[in-house]
Design a protein that fits this description.
alpha/beta, 7-stranded mixed β-sheet, 7 strands, 217 residues
Length: 217
């Protein structure tokens, strides 16, 4: 079990973001710290920033999710950003897509531990998933945008909102430029780079939001 000596104190922003669901967020943060070493979830240097860099940072994405959306979190791994989003938005349904067996098993047991009823785990590669009705598809530290769009586009083609939310850092403009031919070929609208959490969270989140054109139904 990972050492919890350096477990980050809960930032004030956590209560603002999770509200009445804060206890689930606390249990999730603790589970991440407890199980990271055993299941290869986060590196040891990340443990002192579990709240600010991972739990809260991921939950910021819910600002971009319409009410009642069906959300797929691809390459979910430790449940980031899917589980924090699901805690903050019980009105939406989340499918955590994760190909590695031990991580998929951990996700399933953690969802049960947290009592989350709006989340399911699908052990699969994104390319093998047959559903096309996800309104929102999220990804964090999965692949460069060019490759990511090739993987994720089929999952959202049959939905209403047809939106990819890719968590990126300072390379977001470069990745958009590199992916420009694929963006055009797949029928996406102009990508947006959105910074979430300014003046609200300990660390901001940089998100590339990109939507399929309506004609791509």
């Amino acid at each position: 079990m990972s050492e919890l000596v350096e477990f980050e104190a809960e930032p004030a922003a956590a209560m603002e973001i999770f509200g009445e669901h804060i206890e689930q967020a606390r249990k999730y943060a603790f589970a991440l710290a407890r199980d990271s070493e055993t299941f290869g979830l986060l590196g040891p240097r990340e443990l002192p920033k579990i709240w600010s860099r991972h739990v809260i940072n991921s939950a910021l994405l819910v600002e971009l999710v319409p009410d009642g959306s069906k959300v797929a979190d691809v390459g979910s791994g430790a449940g980031l950003p899917g589980i924090p989003m699901a805690i903050a938005r019980p009105d939406c349904h989340f499918t955590l897509i994760e190909p590695m067996e031990r991580r998929a098993n951990w996700l399933g047991s953690t969802i049960t531990e947290l009592g989350l009823e709006n989340v399911e785990v699908l052990r699969a590669r994104a390319e093998d998933v047959q559903r096309t009705d996800f309104d929102i598809v999220t990804a964090r530290a999965v692949a460069a945008l060019d490759k990511l769009l090739r993987m994720l586009t089929p999952l959202t083609r049959g939905s209403i909102h047809k939106t990819v939310l890719a968590m990126k850092g300072s390379r977001a403009p470069i990745e958009i430029e590199e992916a420009a031919p694929r963006i055009k070929r797949l029928g996406f609208l102009t990508p947006e780079i959105i910074t979430l959490g300014l003046g609200k969270a300990p660390e901001t989140a940089t998100v590339v939001r990109i939507k399929l054109a309506e004609s791509e139904s």
